[in-house]
Amino acid sequence: MQEFDTVIGLEVHVQLNTESKIFCSCSTRFDNPANSNICPVCCGYPGVLPVFNKKALELAIRVALALGCKINKQIYFERKNYFYPDLPKNYQISQYKMPLGEKGSLKLPSGETIGITRVHLEEDAGKLIHKENYSLVDLNRTGTPLLEIVSEPDMVSPEEAFDYLTYLKLTLQYINASECNMERGSLRCDANISLKEKGAAKLGTKVELKNMNTFRGVRDALSHEEKRQAKVLVSGEKIFQETRLWDAKHQITEVMRTKEEAHDYRYFPEPDLLDFVVTDSAVNNEKKYIGELPLDKRERFLKEYKLPVTETDVIISERFLSSFFEEACKEFNEPKKICNLLLGPFLEQVNTFEEKFKAVKISAVNFAKIARYFSEGKINNLGVKKVLSLCIVTNSNVDEIIAKEGLLQVSGKEELDKFAKEAIAENPKVVKEYLGGKVQAIMFLVGTVMKKTKGKANPRVVKELLEKALKK
Ligand SMILES: [Zn+2]
Question: Which one of 100, 244, 329, 381 has the lowest number of neighbouring Cβ atoms within 10 Å?
Answer without folding.
Answer: 381
